[in-house]
Amino acid sequence: MARAEIGERANASSAMSNSSRKSARLAITKQHDIARIAIELMPSESQIPTASQDASRRFATGVALFYATLFGMTGTHLPFFTVWLKAVGIDAFWIGLITAVPPVTRFTALPLVTGLAERRQALRRAIIVTSFATAVGFCVLGTQHLPVLVFLIYALTCCLWTPMVPLTDAYALRGVKRYGLNYDPLRLWGSAAFILGALVCGMLLDFIAAQNLIWIIAGSAAIGAVASLALQPLDDAGTARPVTGGRQCVAARWRLHRNYRGICADPRKPRCLLHFCVDCLAASGI
Predict the structure, then answer these.
(1) Are residues 250 and 111 in contact, defined by beta-carbon separation less than 8 angstroms?
(2) Would you call 181 helix, strand, or coil by DSSP?
(3) pTM greater than 0.85 (yes/no)
(4) Cα separation, 61 vs 66, whole angstroms
């Protein structure tokens, strides 16, 4: 009897142990199935949108678009503005005087505008204001043919037009540093648009009168003004180190030119040669 009871107890204990093991295995299997299904339903890391990636993408798109409109307008202005001046009857003396205005504003108005924008940490607002002022200035300029009025209106326009390039460079480089972007592809759009703008304006000259060239320039400036609204706020007024004035912006731009000289020596980066050529035009006479 004692042996039978011990055997029954052993069998019962073994059955309970087997049952507990089976329950544990079923629970583990169920947990694994739940985890596997959850993992399959989760999107991959590359598919998860983040606020930082979206902001970086919007910033890059806005800067590239504005660079394209800015230098596309410059590509129409540089070769054909003097053609328009001659077509509306302005003589050589006034043409020389008028075309000398942009270089003069580079060491007079440019440091004041860029310095004010840096001190107020308002690069984006300064770009928008100068873009719209430039578009309005060229539109008003197209209605005038008297040399004195053309000179005065053009001088006022250039006071706000010439700071746009260093302002845009400062804004772009600050965003590139913040978002960890590559400056080269952003700037490439400006280089390509400069060449495209000059070519398109040259082809249009066969179909329109030279007196109407100013409206192509004004239209390009208006497109740039609208594109400036796509620039994204950086919201870094409290973290960015202020620049003491516009001279630092000019010096930084020339340091960028010297850097391009070194980069262009590398045959593996031929695109930088195009960037350097356009930058030299922008710094010297645009």
Answers:
(1) yes
(2) coil
(3) no
(4) 9
Quick one: pLDDT at residue 229? 95
DSSP class of residue 100 equals T
Cα-Cα end-to-end distance for the chain: 113
Look at residue 65 and give its three-state secondary structure.
helix
For residue 284, pLDDT over 50 is answered with no
Is-contact 102 158, C-beta < 8 A?
yes
CB 201 within 8 A of CB 207: no
Mean pLDDT of 115-122: 90
Structure tokens at 166: 């260093």
DSSP state letters, the chain: -HHHHHHHHHHHHHHHHHHHHHHHHHHHHHHHHHHHHHHHHSPPGGGS--HHHHHHHHHHHHHHHHHHHHHHHHHHHHHHHHHHHHHTT--HHHHHHHHTHHHHHHTTHHHHHHHHHHHTT-HHHHHHHHHHHHHHHHHHHTT--SHHHHHHHHHHHHHHHTTHHHHHHHHHHHHHHHHT--HHHHHHHHHHHHHHHHHHHHHHTTTS-GGGHHHHHHHHHHHHHHHHTTPPP---TTTSPPP--HHHHHHHHHHHHHHHHHHHTSTT-THHHHHHHHHHHHHHT-
The CA distance from 115 to 131, in Å, is 17
Does residue 276 have a pLDDT over 80?
A: no
Residue 203 has a CB neighbour count (10 Å cut-off) of: 9
